[in-house]
Amino acid sequence: MPHAPEPALELTGVGHDYRRDGRRGATVPALDGIDLSLDAGEHLVVVGPSGSGKSTLLRLVAGFHRPTRGTVSVNGRPVRGPGPDRGVVFQRPTLFPWMTVRGNVEFGLRMAGLARAERRALAEHQLALVGLADAAHLRTYELSGGMRQRVAIARALAPDPGIVLMDEPFGALDALTRERMQEEVRSLWLLTGKTLLSITHDVGEAVRLGTRIVVLSARPGRIVLDEVSDLPRAGEPGTHPDFTATRDRIAHAVRAAAR
Amino acid sequence: MSVLAPDRPSAEAPAPESGGIAPAVRSFGLRALSVGGFLLVWWAVARAEVWPPVILPGPGAVWDQAVATSTQGYSGHTLQEHLGVSLRRILVGSVLGTVGGVLLGLVIGLVPVARAVLGPFVTFVRTLPPLAYLSLLVIWFGIGEEPKIWLLVIASLPPVAVATADAVRGVAPDHLNAARSLGARPWHLPVWIVLPHSLPEIMTGVRIAVGVAYTSVVAAETVNGVPGIGGMIREAQRYNQTDVVILGLIVIGLSGLLLDWLLQTLDRTVAPWRGRE
Q: Which PANTHER family has this protein been placed in (chain B) (predicted)?
């Protein structure tokens, strides 16, 4: 077996403690002993009970926090802060309401120093990918929840990051919109071949979208299950004969982890 | 209830084509009615001569003064000139106060040390009535245009500074995180994220500041205030020209309403997402 190239994302011995408010020096452990290595093009979905440090894991990779222990590196370089090589889609869309939809999608391109015409063309392309070509001139507060998340995805993809991080991106959406968005993310992933790391508490979503599924235990979050799945590459993962069995197995692990 | 239903649409809801206009007409009618009623009571009380005209002149006398001051002038300047000079002072004073207030608020909101050092001064100055520091400004700057502008700058700066500082500290961390993840460098954040994010609150501060400047301009014009609407009132008071005093009050009130309406419109244009995020 040839030696694998540098992993797109690598966590070694990562642990993170939060300072507890009020008490000097008191800390709450959120994550502990996380070893994880992700290859380019994988879609890793992290599932776990609430309080298992899923979001903490994502925020460490995004560079919003420094890990208390261990190292996080992207393409072999340690993470020192947020950067355009890691696009982030937040649970609550953090779109900038003082900009139009187009302005939001162009923001990262503007920061990268692209010329106006280039920005416009790329933003238009990204908006078309998420089905919002006609919404470019709208203000973000004029959009529905699902549309906002689509803009957030287009905005995160526009600067062409190596990895896209999604923190329960559909958590605040209704069931129907949610299902449609899952399908769209799956086709975007198939289309762009991006490395994805997403967080969810919805096991069905994890199995439909993840080529790799990691289950975290309750606080402090530790990896209790790490498995590879090929379902997302199938035509319709939800109808695949293995779908139910995989989902039940993951759900069982999550339930066990919550105890 | 259902028996009444057939009648109600025609009685309560107007025909669709006039649906958008009717409430506006009614609201305008109510306002006209209240102003008209007030003028009528004023006229009747003045007419009854409960008090002599030097205490309470009638609306007619005030109207005559309005015509006289706008055509022949008062204290060597027409009413428009008096108002124009006052408005110019308000504009210059509150624009400078707003610019200073936004900068000061940014520094106070973004730099913890600055908040500790400057915060108490801003609060202190904010509690001072402008008339109290006018004397000091006159000693420092004389009786020309300078002390008046300075007074308005000092009066309008703190509300904007406080509003900006609060708004800046209220910026959602994930807005900053999102910007950083999109490639923004730390020094991009104040201009690209913090300032626009704070615009609605800053606009509220500006409205308060202009209001404060408006109420302070009369104070600023108590010393050598002619031309100026406050100077005009002051001058009329010295000669017991009550009708001119009342005219001055009405002009200040009406132009204040107009100014606030303009600021509200500006607010809607500059920060249309207010309350809709």
A: ALKANE SULFONATE ABC TRANSPORTER-RELATED, MEMBRANE SUBUNIT (PTHR30151), TAURINE TRANSPORT SYSTEM PERMEASE PROTEIN TAUC (PTHR30151:SF25)
